[in-house]
Amino acid sequence: MSPASAAGRRERTKAANRAAILAAGREVFSAHGYEAASVRDIVRRTELASGTFYNYFPDKSSIFRALVEDCAWQARRRVRAAPGGPEGFVEGGFRAFFAFIASDPATFAFLRRNLGTIREQFEGAALPAGVAELERDLRAAIARGELPAVDVGYCAHAMVAVGLELGQRLLERRPPDVEGATRFASALFGGGGLERLAAPLR
């Protein structure tokens, strides 16, 4: 085997090991919650030696942070790719988020089970950088005249809270009710609702 082939194989093995540890971590945190979970629990759900975990993550907190940042990135990527415009900003964003939840209920179960810990570790944000990013998007939409001048702090946190709560409910329906949740959330923030809440920017 050539040096390049050997190096490529090592990289694939490292990527596979890390993915296995992350998948096991998500399962354990979803089942037991952050406080009750342990590194030993995570390793037991893999076929790796116990010491292998520490080649990738120094402790339980670091793998938890990696999982939160990964699912937050996925959710934000989908929401930011949603259509713009006065209607699309709200409706498209909620639809993209709810579709993400429906396509990956295991990730959402992880978020729901650990929401309190996520808020503590990420300084009050439901998802790291998510609220701040949504606030920036709201300000930009207001500046473009696509939304009324609402209190962006309240609005961003309300949108995230509604998204998380309706996300839980839509998964309880068979099939998952992405469109129903989207219509409901859009009605709360659209149809003149934001106009009634218009206030000077903060």
Largest β-sheet summary:
none
Q: For the terminal residues, how far apart are their CA atoms?
A: 62 Å
Based on secondary structure, the structural category is mainly alpha
Percentage of helical residues? over 70%
Low-confidence residue ranges: none
Q: In percent, how much strand structure appears in the residues?
A: under 5%
The helix count comes to 10
Number of E-type strands = 0
Question: What's the CATH class label of the largest domain?
Answer: Mainly Alpha
- CATH level-3 fold name of the largest domain: Tetracycline Repressor, domain 2
Order of helices and strands: HHHHHHHHHH
CATH architecture of the largest domain: Orthogonal Bundle
Overall spatial form? elongated
Please tell me the total number of domains. Answer: 2
- CATH homologous superfamily placement of the largest domain: Tetracycline Repressor, domain 2
The whole-number mean of residue pLDDT values reads: 83
Summarize the structure.
This protein is an all-alpha fold. The protein has helices at residues 3-36, 39-44, 60-80, 85-103, 105-113, 115-121, 130-143, 152-171, 178-189, 193-196.
What does this structure look like?
This protein is mostly helical and 202 residues long. It folds into 2 domains: 1-58, Homeodomain-like (Arc Repressor Mutant, subunit A, Orthogonal Bundle), CATH 1.10.10.60; 65-202, Tetracycline Repressor, domain 2 (Orthogonal Bundle), CATH 1.10.357. 72% of the residues lie in helices and 0% in strands. It contains 10 helices and no strands. It has helices spanning 3-36, 39-44, 60-80, 85-103, 105-113, 115-121, 130-143, 152-171, 178-189, 193-196. It is elongated and about 60 Å long. The model has no long low-confidence stretch (mean pLDDT 83).
